[in-house]
Write a structure and sequence with these properties.
The structure holds 2 protein chains of 2 kinds.
Chain A (H helix, E strand, L loop, with lengths): L6 H23 L2 E5 L23 H18 L3 E2 L8 E7 L7 E2 L2 E5 H15 L5 E7 L3 E3 L7 H9 L10 H15 L6 E5 L2 E2 L1 H4 L9 E5 L7 E10 L6 E10 L5 E9 L2 E10 L3 E10 L4 E8 L9 E6 L5 E6 L7 H5 L4 E6 L11 E5 L11 E4 L9 E6 L5 E2 L18 E5 L6 E6 L2 E8 L6 E5 L13 H13 L1 H4 L1 E8 L1 E6 L12 E4 L7 E4 L2 E6 L3 E6 L3 E9 L5 E2 L7 E2 L4 H8 E2 L1 H19 L1 H21 L1
Parallel strand pairs in A: 3-6, 3-8, 8-10, 10-36, 18-19, 18-20, 20-21, 21-27, 28-34
Antiparallel strand pairs in A: 2-37, 4-5, 6-7, 9-35, 11-12, 11-28, 12-15, 13-14, 13-16, 16-17, 22-24, 23-25, 25-26, 26-27, 29-32, 30-33, 31-32, 33-34
Helix pairs in contact in A: 1-2, 2-11, 3-4
Chain B lengths: L8 H7 L20 E5 L3 E7 L11 H7 L3 E7 L5 E6 L15 H18 L4 E6 L7 E3 L6 H9 L9 H11 L5 E6 L8 H9 L3 E8 L1 H4 L5 E7 L5 E6 L1 H24 L3 E6 L4 H11 L5
Parallel strand pairs in B: 4-5, 4-7, 7-8, 8-11
Antiparallel strand pairs in B: 1-3, 2-3, 5-6, 9-10
Classes of the chains: A alpha/beta, B alpha/beta.
Chain lengths: 638, 298
């Protein structure tokens, strides 16, 4: 039981009021004043004689009722609390679950979602909270975000509750509870509850952390549907075997308790491209693959049929980019030496021509194999062992040069080692200061690259033919060619992976390209903003709280994460045994501390009314005496 | 907004069948409705007596004179017009506790006076209302039928309480002013420090018939208070501080009843009538109950 006044203050005020009341009684009510017609029958012998004047309370019950009424009213003014000790107020934290699962429908109620039930629970709980208590609303999904400050105005909290919407991630309940506990500690109050309002579906990682440390935890459980099948992730990768094809890997999970057979359909644009039936055991995952033949960019949409209560994970979409290829024209008298290397990669469209068929205006990459045209190609060109003249001058020719070295800081020499190639004979190039010396021997550069001043044209001159003689069997030959092709057209050879998965924390494997550091990696959203990320233990990690399309770009790879799937739970949360459940009942709220002042005010008023009805005639008699006295005074004056 | 009439029309209509009665025979002119034992100028033969000098020769029984050679005078019964005078107490004691206009003894007495006046007016009696407290105040004579009631009603409505009761003084003044005998109706609480028995006896001794209507309030007979009380007498202003308990209240009521009995005894002793009427009794029941039982009206 508590008061907003101290005991001393309360007793002082009540004592003063009581003293005034008793004094008024002694002054006004100690004797009844009455005007009568005659006194002759009172003073006859045998009747009591007039008594001496003394202070005496004539109507103790009336006085007691008045004091009781005043006591009750004073207690009401002092805002008497019942229960909860001598506290002034408590601070509660209401955690409302805004995970993606809250979009799920409610069985038997077509238009209702779990979010609606959670909001109703929150409002009901808020009504049971005493008005003097403060409440802070915490919206919890992957992140715990305060929606209000500490509010005594519960209307504001109710408004914030009604404005709460589901997010895209799973709830991080442990983090939310810890955050709520931390907020409560900062206020310094005690006795407040931390209320979790939601279905209690968490990730596996949370269940491994042991029990939560919350002194007073209340669980407003929201009943959720038990059966659900949805996409866990969808990945698309350019086919390594077929040109202009994508391999789609689809992973599904059955969250329910019964086996389910569903159909997964694939549409590109609005054209159906395939359908696979998938049977899933309870609480298990299953994968299925689609092969999609398309060269153009488009939106690949996957759907699960039949739909269930949670429709957000029954649909996934991937924005597939257009597949680009590099047009390579080889002018060579021995195209057989080049054909295996160029046709092994579906991203290369190789065309082999005789040197006499040379056209300077060819597009794409022109490889001039031991051939020197009168007019240099307009675009990119790879000069292989030019006979006499080349864009980079030839200083001389050597046999079995010694001291072959690859430029370690150039992508053109990535993966090449000194001992990987033994050159029988080569031209020595007179590379300029602005040229890139890819490989050098003792007498000079043997492979050099040049970029035009405007950056549009690239040229590589090789002093030897890597596909001639014994060199064609060296491991370094195709690797060198691959490096050169990537250098000419990095966009074409960039590996593109498109993945659809859930928002939240993304953790994926990452191998840094040789010679590349973390600074060469970019994590960019579709809006062009850079996301913070971390690379640790061969994994890249970043976080998005909402659905987004994120690209991770490194040297020659680009991974596109279409984070449009909702982040789902893995298991049901097991609350501590001491948790309180449900909406607190009225008597519970009373026991925990309820404002009694309205009832005390009503009771005090009722007591005073009863006192007036029983003894109130004295007041009217007093008024009559006063009126009669005034009349007599008036008459005498007249 | 005009004040409401002292008596409503419906009640007045009920009063029209009543008549004020008195027992004594009074001399007077023809025109009344109560037969008198005294002979007068009526039509109905009453008796004979010897002729005396100065008697009206028209009443001599000439047949008896022819036969007996003696002059006998025929006497006729008469219903004389007897003056009805109504003394209404307007002293402070009548308004004690409940001033005028609040339904106390004063208001009740005025209504009762008005009702009896109306009864008399209907029967063509002549009634003079005389308010009094310490002295007799200017009265109002009314007669000649029910249509004369309105001036009387206004007169009653214009009365206000005040003064200290002195029956002896008032009765002496009355007897001086109104020597003709008649019916005297006294409406009062009869609370006079000097006593009223002697004054009322004077009134009867002078040949008037008394109709004493004793009006009291419930507080007058049974005080409702208990405990210590400061009592103030309305007329004199005297104060009394007493402790009232149930026993004292019972003794008070007993004394009051003795007082009422003494008033009644005065009336009975002089062949008058007495009616004790508490203000809690509705006026209609007072007229058709108490006053009819005492044969004051019939």
């Amino acid at each position: 039981m508590g008061l907003n006044l101290g005991i001393g203050e309360f007793l002082a005020i009540f004592g003063a009021i009581s003293a005034v009341s008793v004094a008024l009684y002694l002054l006004d009510r100690n004797r009844r004043k009455q005007v009568v017609s005659t006194l002759r029958f009172w003073v006859t012998p045998g009747l009591p004689s007039p008594v001496t004047r003394r202070r005496k309370i004539q109507q103790p019950i009336s006085l007691a009722l008045q004091l009781l009424g005043m006591l009750l009213l004073l207690l009401a003014i002092a805002e008497l609390h019942w229960g909860g000790g001598w506290r002034a107020r408590r601070d509660h934290v209401l955690i409302i679950d805004t995970s993606a699962w809250m979009r799920a429908g409610v069985p038997g109620r077509p238009n209702a979602t779990l979010m609606d039930l959670a909001r109703a629970n929150a409002i009901s709980w808020l009504r049971a909270v005493p008005d003097s208590d403060r409440v802070l609303l915490l919206r919890a999904d992957g992140l715990a975000t305060p929606a209000t400050a500490w509010e005594s105005d519960h209307v504001k909290v109710a408004r914030a509750i009604l404005e709460t919407r589901p997010g895209a991630t799973a709830i991080n309940l442990r983090q939310s509870l810890d955050f709520a506990r931390q907020l409560q500690k900062q206020t310094g109050s005690s006795g407040g509850e931390i209320v979790y309002d939601g279905p209690g579906r968490i990730r596996d990682a949370e269940a491994e952390g042991g029990p939560v440390n919350v002194p007073i935890l209340r669980y407003l459980q929201v009943a959720d549907p038990s059966e659900n099948v949805g996409f866990r992730s969808v990945g698309a990768r350019r086919s390594s075997t077929a040109r202009d094809s994508w391999d789609l890997l689809v992973r599904l999970r059955n969250y329910g308790r019964t086996p389910r057979t569903v159909s997964v359909t694939l549409n590109l644009g609005h054209a159906p491209m395939g359908m696979h039936p998938v049977t899933l055991a309870p609480a298990s995952e299953q994968e299925t693959t689609f092969e999609l033949h398309t060269k153009a960019a488009g939106l690949a949409e996957l759907r699960i049929y039949p739909a269930d209560a949670f429709g957000a994970d029954n649909y996934a979409s991937l924005e597939l980019p257009a597949q680009r290829s590099l047009h390579v024209i080889v002018y060579s008298d021995s195209p057989e030496a080049w054909r295996p290397a160029l046709e092994s990669d579906p991203r290369i469209a190789a065309e082999f021509r005789k040197p006499r068929e040379y056209v300077p205006a060819d597009d794409g990459l022109v490889i001039l194999d031991r051939f020197h045209p009168d007019q240099a190609p307009a675009g990119n060109s790879l000069w292989v062992d030019p006979p006499d003249k080349s864009p980079i001058a030839i200083k001389g020719r050597v046999v079995e040069p010694a001291g072959l070295q690859w430029a370690p800081d150039q992508s053109l020499a990535a993966g090449l080692r000194e001992h990987d190639m033994r050159i029988p004979t080569t031209s020595i190039l007179d590379a300029g200061a602005n040229d890139i010396r890819v490989a050098e021997v003792d007498r000079g550069a043997v492979i050099a690259a040049r970029v035009s001043a405007d950056g549009k044209t690239k040229t590589i001159v090789m002093g030897f033919n890597p596909f001639a003689g014994a060199l064609r069997y060296e491991l370094a030959a195709p690797l060198l060619l691959a490096n050169e092709l990537r250098w000419f057209a990095p966009d074409v050879f960039r590996d593109v992976d498109v993945t659809a998965q859930s928002a939240g924390t993304v953790s994926d494997s990452y191998v840094a390209p040789q010679g590349k550091t973390v600074n060469d990696v970019q994590v960019i959203t579709e809006a062009g903003t850079n996301l913070p990320f971390n690379i640790r233990d061969g994994k890249i990690q970043f976080f998005t709280g909402s659905a987004a399309r994120v690209s991770v770009i490194s040297a020659n790879t680009e991974r596109v994460y279409s984070l449009t799937l909702p982040e789902m739970w893995d298991q049901r949360w097991v609350p501590p045994t001491t948790v309180r459940r449900g909406i607190p009942a009225w008597n519970d709220a009373l026991r925990r501390g309820t404002d009694l002042w309205p009832w005390l005010a009503i009771l005090g008023g009722a007591v005073l009314l009863v006192e007036y009805l029983i003894y109130g005639r004295d007041m009217s008699a007093l008024l009559r005496v006063i009126r009669a006295h005034m009349d007599r005074t008036g008459e005498r004056a007249a | 907004m005009a004040n409401a009439p002292i008596l409503d029309r419906k009640f007045l209509e009920r009063l029209e069948r009543l008549t004020i009665h008195w027992q004594k025979s009074f001399p007077g002119l023809v025109g009344g409705h109560n037969k008198s034992r005294l002979p007068g100028g009526g039509q109905e033969f009453l008796d004979h007596r010897h002729f005396h000098q100065g008697d009206d020769l028209r009443a001599v029984n000439w047949r008896a004179y022819m036969r007996l050679d003696k002059m006998f005078l025929k006497l006729f019964q008469v219903e004389p017009r007897v003056p009805v005078r109504m003394l209404v107490d307007i002293s402070d004691s009548m308004a004690a506790g409940k001033p005028a206009g609040t339904g106390g003894k004063f208001d009740y007495a005025l209504k009762l006076a008005g009702a009896l006046c109306y009864v008399g007016l209907v029967r063509l009696d002549t009634i003079e209302v005389l308010p009094f407290s310490g002295k007799l105040q200017e009265g109002k004579v009314c007669g000649g039928g029910r249509h004369r009631f309105t001036p009387l009603s206004r007169f009653l409505e214009g009365l206000s309480s005040g003064g200290t009761t002195s029956f002896l003084k008032v009765i002496r003044e009355f007897l001086n002013d109104y020597p003709q005998r008649g019916l005297v109706i006294v409406i009062s609480d009869f609370l006079d420090e000097g006593g009223c028995d002697k004054a009322l006896q004077y009134l009867a001794d002078y040949g008037n018939e008394l109709m004493l209507i004793h009006v009291w309030s419930d507080e007058d007979r049974t005080p409702p208070w208990t405990g210590e009380c400061d009592l103030e007498e309305a007329e004199s202003g005297a104060k009394l501080h007493i402790h009232v308990d149930d026993e004292a209240r019972a003794r008070y009521t007993e004394e009051f009843d003795k007082f009422a009995a003494s008033i009644r005894a005065v009336a009975m002793r002089n062949s008058g009538r007495y009616a004790a009427i508490p203000t809690s009794l509705p006026l209609e029941e007072a007229i058709f109950g108490k006053l009819m039982q005492s044969r004051s009206v019939a």
